[in-house]
């Protein structure tokens, strides 16, 4: 039987959640036995080459590229999981929500004391910034949520094992945290 | 003094005359979740987390006195989901970025989120635009995290009994304010008291923050209410 396939992405996140995946320590060897990775920064596969069983999403959506990528993951993954505060509620990037985009861009590119060419970048190559940062489940259907900043490695591990083996998930109090 | 007999979820309980359901439950080793309630302050009944069912009707357990023969429903699936929904509403109607919050780990709203295993709120985030007041000498008021429990309004007064905190506007625009002059005269002890009284990270004492390491904070390893519950 072929192994379940896992894909991961970092949208508007800081890669902290991916670091937390690696933080499962030597269980990573077990993980490699259990699953095969497809599109993911972990193996640097850039495009989906097959239908995946589980997609792990870090980060919310702050620009058009995040939205496209998220929709691509929804299409290619049977189960999609929001991993971490940014994916679940926008997180730190969402601190700009409530401030008009124009004001944000002016602050960052025009008024900021360390810029000198004073232009707001605008090129076809650049993804368009959204009016606010969106939690992933406000863009596509998300099946499960793993909170934390980052989610504890044990939470990610237990959730993955439960999904892969069909066992009931029993979480100790310590592993579900919002920080 | 006469004793009042009543039941919570079928368990026989005893109460002293005048006790509210929340207080009596506690004496009987039963936790009813609360947020706006604070022991020693006059109950305000603003948050409704403590909702229980008495005679088929929903009531705030922190404001309702126990009466003889009262039959209280507390831990039913319906009520627990109702409470979880209130917690989720409080999360989406403010701006709660726990990873950046000084109160994280010691916050009662967050702790309720943990107790009720809130993985993600069922409601859309509102991302309201709220203000922060850092102009006072001893405290910061971070309205993004305020849950309008009015504990500060009820519990923080000057030595001669004047209220330092107040509330303005109505409905979704309710906002906590301070009397700037009275607040300017707050001592370090008063600032600490205000911070401790606030269940969330909306009142912060200046020049301290993140003092307790992760793992050692109030709710890192013990769920809120576990100190009340008897096995
Ligand atoms: S007040 Fe509590 S719930 Fe809100 S951000 Fe701070 S820790 Fe989180
Ligand atoms: S500032 Fe704190 S204590 Fe005062 S109403 Fe808001 S949450 Fe309650
Ligand atoms: S604790 Fe009873 S209404 Fe808030």
Please write out the topology:
The complex is a heterodimer of chains A (179) and B (231).
Chain A: E1 5-10, H1 16-22, H2 27-34, E2 36-37, E3 52-58, E4 61-63, H3 64-76, E5 77-83, H4 85-89, H5 101-111, E6 129-134, E7 144-146, H6 153-165
Parallel strand pairs in A: 1-2, 1-3, 3-5, 5-7
Antiparallel strand pairs in A: 4-6
Chain B: E1 4-8, E2 11-15, H1 21-27, E3 51-54, E4 57-60, E5 71-73, H2 77-93, H3 108-115, E6 132-133, E7 139-142, H4 151-155, E8 165-168, E9 175-178, H5 180-184, H6 188-197, E10 203-205
Parallel strand pairs in B: 1-5
Antiparallel strand pairs in B: 1-2, 3-4, 3-5, 6-7, 7-10, 8-9
Can you put this structure into words, describing what you see?
The complex is a heterodimer of chains A (179) and B (231). Chain A is of the alpha/beta class and 179 residues long. Chain A has helices spanning 16-22, 27-34, 64-76, 85-89, 101-111, 153-165; strands spanning 5-10, 36-37, 52-58, 61-63, 77-83, 129-134, 144-146. In chain A, strands 2-1-3-5-7 form a five-stranded parallel β-sheet, with helices on both faces. Chain A has a two-stranded antiparallel sheet with strand order 4-6. Chain A is built from six helices and seven strands. In chain A, 37% of the residues are buried. Chain B folds into two domains: 4-73, Ubiquitin-like (UB roll) (Roll); 85-209, Alpha-Beta Plaits, CATH 3.30.70.20. Chain B has helices spanning 21-27, 77-93, 108-115, 151-155, 180-184, 188-197; strands at 4-8, 11-15, 51-54, 57-60, 71-73, 132-133, 139-142, 165-168, 175-178, 203-205. Chain B is globular, with a radius of gyration of 18 Å. In chain B, the strands form three sheets. A five-stranded mixed β-sheet of chain B has the order 2-1-5-3-4, with helices on both faces. In chain B, strands 6-7-10 form a three-stranded antiparallel β-sheet. Chain B is built from six helices and ten strands; from the N terminus they run E-E-H-E-E-E-H-H-E-E-H-E-E-H-H-E. Chain B has 231 residues and is α+β, with helices and mostly antiparallel strands. The model of chain B has no long low-confidence stretch (mean pLDDT 96). In chain B, a hairpin with a 2-residue loop joins strand 1 (4-8) and strand 2 (11-15). The chains are: A alpha/beta (179), B alpha+beta (231). At the A-B interface, helix 4 and strand 7 of A face helix 3 of B. One iron/sulfur cluster binds at residues 146-152, 176, 197-200, 202-203 of chain B. The site of one iron/sulfur cluster has 12 residues of chain B, from helix 3.
